[in-house]
Amino acid sequence: MRKPRENPYIPFDATITKIVDLNEESKSFHLDSSELRKMIYQPGQFIQVTVYGVGEVAIGITDTIYDEGFEVAIRNTGGRVTSYLHTMKVGDIVGIRGPLGKPFPMDDFKGKNLLFICAGIGFWPIRACIKHVINHREDYGKLLAIFGVRNPSLFTYTDEIESWMSREDMKVQRTVDSCSDEDCWDENVGLITSLTDDFKPQNPEDWIILCCGPPVAFKFIGESLNKNGFNDDQIWVSLERKMKCGIGKCNHCLIHGTRYVCMDGPVFTLGEARDMPGGLD
Amino acid sequence: MSEKPRVGIFGMTSCYGCQLEIINLEENILRLLDHVNISYWRLALETPSDPKNLDIAIIEGSASNQEEIEELREIRQNSKIVITIGACAALGGVQGMRNLMNNERVMSAAYSNLSGVRATEVKAIHEVIKVDYAVRGCPINKEEFAAAILHLLAGTQPPAWNMPVCNECKIKGNECFFERKKPLPHYQSRVCLGPISEAGCGARCPSNGMPCDGCRGWTEDAHVKQWIKEGLERNQTIEDLAMLVHRYSGGTKDSEIAKE
Amino acid sequence: MIPRFISQEALKEWVEHLITQFSVYAPVQEKGDYDFAKIAHAEEIAFDFDRTRMSIKGFFLKPEEKLMSASASKGDPVASSPDTSKRIIFGARPCDITALNLTDNVFVKDFYDPYYMKRRQSTIIIGIRCTEKCRTCFCGTMDSNNPLTGYDIMLTEMDTGEILIQAGSDNGEKLFRGSRHLTRQSSEEDQSLILKTFKKITETFTPDIPTTGLKAIIDLGRTEFLWKKYEKICLSCGQCVFVCPTCWCFDVKEIVGADETDFGNLDKTARIRRWASCLYKDYHTVSGGHIFMPTVASRLENYYKHKLRGIPEKFGVWGCVGCGRCVSTCPVGIDIRESLKELTGD
Fold first, then answer.
1. Which of A117, C39, C126, C269 is a plausible cystine mate for A211, CB 3.0–4.6 Å?
2. Distance of CA A105 to CAs A129, A207, A210, A213, Å?
3. How far is residue B163's CA from residue C221's CA, in Å, rounded to a whole number?
């Protein structure tokens, strides 16, 4: 699967073909180049995006393969690279390295029911999984997707989520942590665990849970799911760390001396993540 | 960019050594001038110049009296980006040590006639106005200054490695001045500040046979207390050590540690 | 190759011969310590050296290097090519060679690092075996004083003062082409001499620090007392990392306009890699301000666990070669030998 490039530190170029505002702090960038179209990747993997002269940033892949190129969603965290990316325009050039990391083992999940838990921008890597499953719908059982953000204005890809809500073969639940009186809504209000607490299917062992969000949320989501009969090895999470090389050399993403998030992850089971001290920090 | 950005270079209380370092860029200063118009520089421009409508203001020195504070506020209003150069601007500098002492006593020791002296507490520039970027060091590292300007012109933040001087010192393969149980070289009996000082200078002093002076200020996670303990083990007095850690930063950093 | 012997005088003559063909780097005395430097004459070599201030890792993983240059507007990244002229490192110690074997694994496995590997392939390594323990070393414990590969020639001083030459590669054998007259072939009579010397070396480097059960103890997780203790005194200066032959952490930054030949051209960008230390806070800080390992204790734990738990699991060898450089360089006196004893409750 991994084709060794001659020099793994050198990116290939891609052109920004479209920019979409996702919410007040996030944009999605459509990228395209002949090399990019050859790129084969799987849900859960990430790429390194280079802004030449500014820096490089690791970004989870937000989409499944399509012919016109490729889409990444990026939140402006105020850092060198993401803030510069948000000033870039259609036609500008960026560099890409990847795909990197281990994906979600979607083939192993065949025949299972799937629960997707998307906390905040953790939705973006999971979005690739959801689209993959919809494209291969007959391979999987029941589907439930749970989305949680801080307030209603922070939802991204709203049209897409709403199109999933209208599907008969899939259930979608949304929640916001809190909302002020003016812009509140008629769906659930409360932490994401308020939805997972109520998730009590008859045969929990038939389910696989794919979860992405801030690591601190994994602890609470894990607890909530454990109570309802799910064990840690059914729960798959995607971890985040500072990354530089992305190829297991620079040691930035090493978790307590034993696992590289870039090479051994970013996808781990919650059990694996708990076994690494500090893994969920 | 159709028109070149307008740059002003200002000096507050300082030795003007950092501005000299800019001139010391020699050939490379011409390459910088390809990109900018210097519209105000008292040290280097012959003709009277205009400190208004600036894109970049470069400030050396600390604010040490009321006039300087007012001038700084004016510069801020007239400039899009403010960057400071040198230890005085970033930390207060050597003159900042007087904040730790009785100001009147310092003044009467320095001047015979106090009538024209307007000196007040020493302040780093960022304590007076918003600073967008600081090039540190006493004096600045001219290559680092040039890099900072080029990055700002390219519309991005200058890169910072955020490491202590030990990183650059070891990269250069220098002899360590701070090794345990090793007598301090007789010609320099003070302790090296490298482990707790911000890098970026290329370990200039240790590479030339002198312990680090800490002119770029403490690192973000400097363990100053332990450094002082280690200094005491190396037969230094607490007064000497306190003076060393506050030599450049007395004006801005709290002096709690020295008191302890 | 059947092992050969060379006299100390002839060895110098041979080195002089090598200098005519290669750049030769050897330990020299400098500022009160030994360090590798390019030599012009065999006399410059400090043959009495025990270990050098810095390990030989910097020959391959440069302290600072440009990985590529590119155009800010058009991209087109171009990789920089490392200097691959043939060179010799004369006098590498076994611990450094063991460390090199480990880092080779890292830089060739999964993804091939061309900068490191090209330098590695263009370098001939002539090792000198230690016959005595040096300063703070504990290589016997870390099983690193007898590397089986990683060198082209290994030299061992016999009790008689003669030096045994063992080739570790074809390149090593070729080095003696044209210089065979300087050496003598060993014969059966030499066997007792060789055995005697090596027996003495083995006895000198008997493991003396307990490591049994270390893996289980670390996995149990009851190690926090040690990191908390060190946290109080560690300055996070990172010196132990830079002198360590098995620390290969680096940081990468992009810069503009600093091109050597075209200074000030804002379209020219470069990617720079530089040694970094996992003990620095910035090393774990991401934009937005989150710090993944916020305390010095957690960073120290990561550092030690990588060497004593992570690397053994991945590569089957200790991540510490017991050279003892970190022990002598640490300004506050943190001693990994003491750490090992405390961890194993000795």
1. A117
2. 10, 14, 11, 18
3. 30
- The total number of residues shown for chain C amounts to 346
Identify the three-state secondary structure at position C125.
strand
* Cα–Cα distance measured from residue B195 to residue B176, given in angstroms and rounded to the nearest whole number: 11
3-state SS, residue A19: strand
Compute φ and ψ for C11, nearest 5 degrees.
-60, -45
Chains that touch C (3 or more CB pairs under 8 A): A, B
Alpha helices in chain A (DSSP H): 34-38, 80-85, 123-135, 158-165, 193-196, 215-227, 270-275
Q: Would you say A31 and A70 are in contact if contact means Cβ atoms under 8 Å apart?
A: yes
CB C277 to CB B163 under 8 A? yes
* Least Cα separation, residue A106 to chain C (angstroms): 23
- B154 at interface of A, judged by CB pairs closer than 8 A: yes
Query: Does A87 contact B at CB distance below 8 Å?
Result: yes
- Taking the Cβ of residue C111 and every Cβ of chain B, the question of whether any pair is shorter than 8 Å is answered with no
Q: Are B35 and C267 in contact (CB under 8 A)?
A: no
Q: Is the CB of residue A80 less than 8 Å away from at least one CB of chain B?
A: yes
Tell me the angle at which helices C336-343 and C224-231 cross, rounded to the nearest 10 degrees. 150
For residue B155, the chain A residues in CB contact (below 8 A) are: 84, 87
Please tell me which residue of chain A has the smallest CA distance to B159: A54
pLDDT band per the 50, 70, 90 thresholds, residue B182: low
From chain C, pick out residues whose CB is under 8 angstroms from the CB of A80: 287
Instruction: Verify whether the Cβ–Cβ distance B147 to C255 is below 8 Å.
Output: yes
Closest CA to B21 of B75, B82, B85: B85
| Sequence-distant (≥ 6) Cβ neighbours of residue A10 within 8 angstroms | A97, C67, C68, C77, C79
Distance from C-alpha of A137 to C-alpha of C276, rounded to nearest angstrom: 47
Read off the amino acid at residue C264: G
CA-to-CA dists, residue C303 to A257, C240, C277, angstroms: 6, 10, 9
pLDDT digits (tens, 9 = 90+) for B77-104: 999 999 999 999 998 888 888 887 777 8
> Do B213 and B207 contact (CB within 8 A), yes or no?
no
Residue A226 near residue A199 (C-beta atoms within 8 A):
no
Q: Which of C109, C285, C306 sits opposite A257 (nearest CB)?
A: C306
pLDDT tens string C91-136: 999 999 999 999 999 998 788 899 999 999 999 999 999 998 888 8
- The residues facing C92 across adjacent strands are C127
Contacts of C237 in chain B (CB under 8 A): 164, 166, 194-196
For C113, phi then psi, to 5°, come to: -95, 105
The predicted model gives A146-161 an average pLDDT of: 89
Q: Where are the domains of chain C?
A: 4-61+82-204
CA distance C321 to C337: 12
Calculate how close chain C gets to A215, using CA atoms only, in Å. 10
Q: Which residues of B162-188 are buried (b: 16+ CB within 10 A; e: fewer)?
A: bbbbbbbbbbebbbbbbebeeebeeee
Please answer whether residues B119 and B92 qualify as being in contact, where contact means their C-beta atoms are separated by less than 8 angstroms: no
Is C189 in a helix, a strand, or coil? helix
Residue to test with chain B: of A50, A80, A86, A250, most B Cβ within 10 A:
A80
| Cα gap A47→A256, rounded to integer Å | 23
Q: Say how far apart CA C47 and CA C8 lie, in whole Å.
A: 10
Say yes or no: ipTM exceeds 0.90: no
Q: Report yes or no: C162 and C6 within 8 Å, Cβ to Cβ.
A: yes
Query: In C, which residues are within 8 Å of A252 by CB distance?
Result: 249, 251, 278, 283-284
Using CA atoms, how far apart are residues A226 and A228, in angstroms rounded to an integer?
A: 5
- pTM for this predicted structure: 0.89
**CA B195 to CA B166: how far, in whole Å?**
6
Q: Return d(Cα A186, Cα A240) in angstroms, integer.
A: 32
